[in-house]
Amino acid sequence: MARRLPKHQVTIVHYKYEDKWICVCNCQHDANEIISLTGLLMLGSILSFISLMLLVMSFASPHWLVSWQDTYSPFKNMGLWEFCFSRFRYPNYQFDDLFDGCHYVFSKTYFVIWEWLLPGWLMAVQAFMTLALIFSCSAHIASTMLLVRWPLNFTFRYQWQILSVCTLMNGLKSFCLFLSVAVFGGQCWRRDWMLYPNFNYLSWSYAFAVIAMFIGMAATASFYFDAKRTVGRKKANSNLVVQMQSHGSQIYI
What we know:
Blueprint: E1 2-5, E2 10-17, E3 20-27, H1 31-60, E4 65-67, E5 75-78, E6 82-88, E7 99-104, H2 114-117, H3 120-148, H4 152-157, H5 159-187, E8 200-202, H6 204-245, E9 250-252
Parallel strand pairs: 3-9
Antiparallel strand pairs: 1-2, 2-3, 4-5, 4-8, 5-6, 6-7
């Protein structure tokens, strides 16, 4: 007797030989399903990589907030970790020192105005961006393991768990990026922070963070659907093995 499960194209044949039931299984998954799964994994990995590259450029570049060139403002541009001024004199500093050029925010040059440069909301943005970068790197490492199938036994055995990790890491990255761009976009024009806020505008580093957030959301969706299909296929295979074992003592697959 023979049975066919059309979803996975499985043929099971049982026959009796020397008072023992022998089960022979011819298993062949749907080629379209396998291609779709591979496509989702590849798509999610590509999107995750693009998002990581944009995040790195946004994280390291000093062009989150830029002053319009025609305004001749002493403030020129800033990033998460660097501020640029042109002969800027801080009004609340009692000594007549000029801050000129681009310097690391924690450098000795900006030590006297460090509290003014880094209010609490900007430090929160730095923290969220750092977490987003960590989550993005973790997701990319996990997706690369699945793409190259290394280590082989581990990736095959825990495929849906690794996909779940990719989904979670990309989701957390997108959430942290959302908090970063929302907080920075809402607070960067505060008059108690940077002088002449109307002379400034959000530049390409900020835009890269926004784009990385949306691409990260798309990568999250790709990994989620791939993990969901992988779990469904694993359950179907487990049910198939149980059905085969219930018909005989010897099984050949």
